[in-house]
Amino acid sequence: MRLGLCSRTHPQPRSSFLPHSRILGTPSLSSYSPISFPRKRFTFSGRKKLILRAQNLDYKSEQQLSAAYMDLRKEFPELKRNLYPDIEPYSTGFLKVSDLHTIYWEQSGNPNGHPVVFLHGGPGGGTSPSNRRFFDPEFYRIILFDQRGAGKSTPHACLLENTTWDLIEDIEKLRGHLEIPEWQVFGGSWGSTLALAYSQSHPDKVTGIVLRGIFLLRKKEIDWFYEGGAAAIFPDAWELFKDLIPENERGCFIEAYHKRLNSDDNETQFAAARAWTKWEMMTAHLLPSEETIKRGDDDNFSLAFARIENHYFVNKGFFPSDSYLLDNIEKIRHINAVIVQGRYDVCCPMMSAWDLHKAWPQADFRVVPDAGHSANEPGIGAELVAANEKMKNIINRN
């Protein structure tokens, strides 16, 4: 069998949330992030920009200017950019979402805080304790869960009943189980794909969206990373990925790996899973991370990560069209959103974030100039914390 990869009226916004380059009425007056992507670039400090804003309001005296400056600082405070300390969950559990699948979930932070759901990457990557650190634990009720077949969810690495639409139903079942009326959605890499798909399916349940490392699961994105495009940048890492496959099967690596990841022989599965996972882990950072690369040696992690990723990619994300997520932006255009993208992201190259930005200019678009793909890179982590702080300020103002 030849697989395909190789051959309304909407409510008003909950707040007057605009891209931060326009918050104060002109691109030069942003007080948020020097790594933003305004239409024009200026180098004013935050204080100078706010004083210029005060001057534009015709305050004459130094005292009036100073008072106006302080008022504006209260309205647009400096955003925290450091990761929060490690915390432990205050509750954990398992939710049976089908006759076959049970998903692991946890809650941390403030039980009475604003709910936010974290959607992990992969698919198949699972969550980790460090994922909690992007959120203010005094403000947010932080919900993490492992998607079907990943992490602590069972059955492990299972592909049956495992589609994007199944995951979207699981998110809704979890929201209902935790008695949450609506929540903020946070997702990176594949998590950005799922965050968009979920939000487009249930826009009335979403208070805000933070996305990182945009992946729209289009054919050109799959081909870039798995059919030789990224090999131009990482030829050494690519050789390890390529060499597992005989030359006569290299016309489509996705298909060749699909065959091996679903082999009846366990060692064939594990060998393919290790090679697949190491390729991604070796390319996930601007500067390679040995700790990340070692994850490819963990057969338990690699099998779920590689099998589930490949399953979703072979099936084109289970979307009805290649541009499905971009075609449905209108459903979420009114929702407050921040997009964070590493300039040198090889796994999910910036072309996808740029396409999303063009389709959704209302979203706050931030490009990190010295980062690759991983959320654990300092610049990306800082922007993600700042994005959640910005969401927090909007909620507090309302």
From TrEMBL:
Main location: cytoplasm
Chain ranges of the AB hydrolase-1 domain: 115-377
Compartments it resides in: Cytoplasm
InterPro entries to which the protein is assigned, alphabetical: AB_hydrolase_1 (IPR000073), AB_hydrolase_fold (IPR029058), Peptidase_S33 (IPR002410), Pro_iminopeptidase (IPR005944)
Reactions catalysed, as given in the entry: Release of N-terminal proline from a peptide
GO cellular component: cytoplasm
GO biological-process terms attached to the record: proteolysis
UniProt cross-references to Gene3D superfamilies, sorted A to Z: alpha/beta hydrolase (3.40.50.1820)
GO molecular function: aminopeptidase activity
Keywords: Aminopeptidase, Cytoplasm, Hydrolase, Protease
Position of the signal peptide: none
Principal EC category: hydrolase
Record-linked SUPFAM superfamilies: alpha/beta-Hydrolases
EC nos: 3.4.11.5
Domain of life: Eukaryota
Stated family: Belongs to the peptidase S33 family.
Alphabetized PANTHER family for the sequence: PROLINE IMINOPEPTIDASE
Name of this protein: Proline iminopeptidase
